[in-house]
Amino acid sequence: MSMEKVANKQYETKNWPDIVDSDDSDVDNEIDVDNLPPLEVGPGENRLQHTYCLWFSRKETQRAAADYSKSLHMVGRCASVQQWWSLYSHLIRPTALKPYRELLLFKQGIVPMWEDPANSKGGQWLIRLRKNKVDRAWENVCMAMLGEQFLVGDEICGVVLQTKYPEDSLAVWHRTATDMTSTTRIRDTLRRILNIPLTTAMEYKIHCDSLKYVSNNKGPLKS
């Protein structure tokens, strides 16, 4: 797939159902995210502070680190509010996805894997959601990230939505697990955005611990 096709992918909708439901896809997962061409922002568009890449992962079982990279497909990019809404309006909603599918919105240049240098020393706040809550939660958290509402500088890496059964999960990834000020602020912002009561527990996972678990157990991580 050419870089020009990738750059314009957020305006294409015909391939999205194939990515979700078929065994084969024409979306290239060997994209060099460090060398993508600039994404133009037109006159009158509201530029985002960062360019973001939307990824999709399709697996029939829980993910294993050994082959997870093969399941990742980049399906679009956005550099303005208008481009995000164009992309978002063409997405299948999380409640319509089959189990063990992931939608991942990350800053351009960061691959949504624990091993990526931007993620390797970081962690994630994980929230488990009922099916009837996940669509709005996904939209609200993505908008909060795009709008820089977390107020933690460059700490935020991306947002991951994973469909499971009977509940789905939503996670915010950030760079530095040892930065307690940022970690706490991300947690508190999530509580505010999603109206999570203080009595509801939120789970925090450190990426290097997840990598060690997979390495030691030679199998999928149960999240």
Automatic annotation (TrEMBL):
Known SUPFAM superfamilies for this protein?
eIF4e-like
Cellular component annotations (GO), alphabetically ordered: eukaryotic translation initiation factor 4F complex
Q: Does the keyword DNA damage apply?
A: no
Q: Which keywords does this chain's UniProt record carry? A: Initiation factor, Protein biosynthesis, RNA-binding
One GO molecular-function annotation for this sequence?
Answer: translation initiation factor activity
The UniProt similarity line reads: Belongs to the eukaryotic initiation factor 4E family.
Task: State the name under which the record lists this protein.
Answer: GD18325
The scientific name of the source species is Drosophila simulans
State the encoding gene. Answer: Dsim\GD18325
